Amino acid sequence: MSEPINRTISVAPMLDWTDKHCRYFLRQISQHALLYTEMVTTGAIIFGKGDYLAYNQEEHPVALQLGGSDPADMARCAAEAQKYGYDEVNINVGCPSDRVQNGRFGACLMAEPEVVAACIKSMQAEVDIPVTVKSRIGIDDMDEYQDLTRFIEVVAASGCDTFIVHARKAWLKGLSPKQNRDVPPLMYDRVYQLKQQFADLHISLNGGVKTLDDVALHLNHLDGVMIGREVYSNPFILAEVDARFYQGNTVGKVCKTRAEVVMAMLPYVEQQIALGARPWNIARHMLGLFQGQAGGRIWRRYLSQNGTKANAGVELLTDALDVLLEAQFKAKQFQTEVIG
Q1: Taking the model in full, what pTM does it have?
Q2: Which among 101, 107, 215, 311 has the fewest CB atoms less than 10 Å away?
Q3: Is 77 a catalytic residue?
Q4: Mean pLDDT (10-residue bins), the chain, 340 residues
Q5: Is the dihedral of CA 301, 321, 269, 289 positive or negative?
Q6: Which among 95, 108, 119, 160 is annotated as catalytic?
């Protein structure tokens, strides 16, 4: 059995966003935040022609988020994940998209806790790594607190002791997946109440977390906090995570500045280009690195305008950094000469 996972801070699984390039990039900023893959379906793993479980060893701790509802298939894929070296397998019980519902997994499974429980039992029989669940607080008209507690009770009885709860309900009919991330109101108190009632379970919260001060407030009530879109749009928010929430417990080097992050990515970009990746596949995840900084817009524009060119190479990042640093220098020079 591997070392227990510290789930104090995690980065949410986000479709089309948290691929292996994104996770490698985020790992340059925080050593300890738990990273999640995009949701991968059992069908993709079992029948797909690509290697849907590929990741970089530097990503640890890293969890696979799995979409499915057939216990045998879920167990087979969990075993594959353990063979690959993943630290955790997480069951998606929160995605509200029509495609996911048609496959009978995601948020619609909140109405079938017995199915989720059967998957947990089947998966735990095949693996030693943790099997966890990410859910909503409810779906459609099944949105009372007792509906949520029944789901937790049934699934926990199967052996699952770790739940990540998105503090919004999901409307399976009438709202798009994008609207389901914003329209239903956040109900943090309901997740807090869940932890009070199920004190022996590990409960993390997801949804609407934008600052590390938000994280600290939630940690007064819960075991962990999962940050999603804010990390993607402003990845350097993770720069203070290790020191603030892991007592500075670091091993090896962590990048201290945004420029250091860029330089640390260069060998990886070269390696991935050699393996057939395009620089844009990686650079697109780095657009927000200088969010809120002088020259941040210039950085984003340079990458966007040049990243998809056929002749783009590793110099894409160094050239973008040069342009940004030049803009910052001119801005400081202007302040000195004109403003004083």
Answers
A1: 0.94
A2: 311
A3: no
A4: 84 96 97 97 94 96 97 98 98 84 82 97 98 96 95 98 96 76 89 98 97 98 97 96 81 74 97 96 98 94 96 96 91 68
A5: negative
A6: 95
